[in-house]
Amino acid sequence: MPRVDQALAEQVLAVAQMREAEAALIDAGSSVNALMQVAGRGAAEWVWRMAGRRPVTVLCGPGNNGGDGYVIAEALRARGGEVTVVASAAPASGACRNSRALYGGKVLAREAEVHGEVLVDCLFGSGLNRPLSAGDGALLARLAAAHPRRIAIDVPGFVHADSAALLGDEVAYDLTLALGAWKPAHFLIPASALMGRLRLIPIGIDGVPDAAQVIAQPQLSAPAADAHKYRRGMLAVVGGAMPGAAVLAAIAAQGAGAGYVKLFAEDTGNVPADLVVDHGALKEVLNDDRNAAVLVGPGLGRDAAARGRLAVALVDRAAVVLDADALVLLSPHNLGERAAPTIATPHEGELGALERAFDLGGAGTKPDRARALARSSGMIVVAKGPDTVVAAPDGRLAFSTRATSWLSTAGTGDVLAGTIASRLAVSAHTGQDAFAAACEGVWLHGEAARLCPPGFTAGQLARMVPAALAACL
User: Fold this and answer.
1) Cβ distance 354 to 382 under 8 Å?
2) Residue 1 has pLDDT above 60, yes or no
3) Among candidates 49, 56, 43, 71, which has minimal Cα distance to 147?
4) CATH second-level architecture of 234-470?
5) Alpha-carbon distance values, 377 to 137, 344, 370 (Å)
6) Which fold has domain 6-214?
């Protein structure tokens, strides 16, 4: 199978960007038919791996996604596979008609009763931009029920590729094969939860300027031979009314690369022996020029004292990560003339609170909302959840791959904040920008969760961060 260039494998293209990228290939001497052959044959390799010689049914729609399906079916037939094609309608595009003419097998009408081992959904792919008709929805549901394994080509036939909206009844897939480039729906809820494993089929497109990216495993290095704790990055964690959350964040930060993590707290309870706690005045703690970054928010509270801690933290010249209660208390005047990077890590409810604070309408997809908040506030926004996205004020956007759903437990957001803050502290000495540090923290958090046993706690997750870091060395 063709090798996937790593840089190209990380770009995420909207449907319009993908069409422009394909048009550029055609202008350079390729053709729609040639690209369809490359995409279909590449996808057929994965279908063959799953099905072998067991019966495969390919559902072909009338457009180019259906044309991909005819190419897949012919590739399987030529290898001796048992394949049946069901057409939802006659081909409506020239490329689809051409691929249909090249298919050497029989094509059944949509009314045919077909059973098999693997269903390949080539109904609409990324071309769907309207609700699925009742007839097409019923056809897809019937065939899905008759096949225990299901593969979607590009995106499932009822999914909007840009917004991840479901335009028909849900069908769950075991595998989704993205053609040419990833689309936003591959990473966004609700669509991504139905797609199973994801694989990319390269077709030769070039890098697209300003394309969004997938958050890939970072390539990190051990500290320099002459490193010391301050040169590796000193992080100040501001505690508050609920000290446990700040302790969790600090433990995660210790394992994510920072050389010195100091917790400011009045009441810490049970704190690990290797975590430095400072009970002094916050202004004095944050007046330390050695601070590379500050984390404020986990367990902060929402009273007057919490507002004061937040204000002091934002006056600091160091980079700042804002999480949890800090996001609810934040207003535009808090940011003032801050020159140092600021990262916000809101969940859905906190994202809404920030949108209200910055007079944003909250319209559009999650990436749209994150980008709008980043532009308006000047902050890097980590809009966290089962479909985390990272947006920068300059328009950069990154999608996280799906992490385990066991992360849906109390305290894991505090661990994420600590991990990001640690990488931000490190970046102050490596010269890396804050957007990259945020993406590193998101990846380490997801990997730590993958390494944990099912039913893990936030404390177990925090203690697994060093193992995730080790995977990047």
Assistant:
1) no
2) no
3) 56
4) 3-Layer(aba) Sandwich (3.40)
5) 42, 10, 11
6) Rossmann fold (3.40.50)
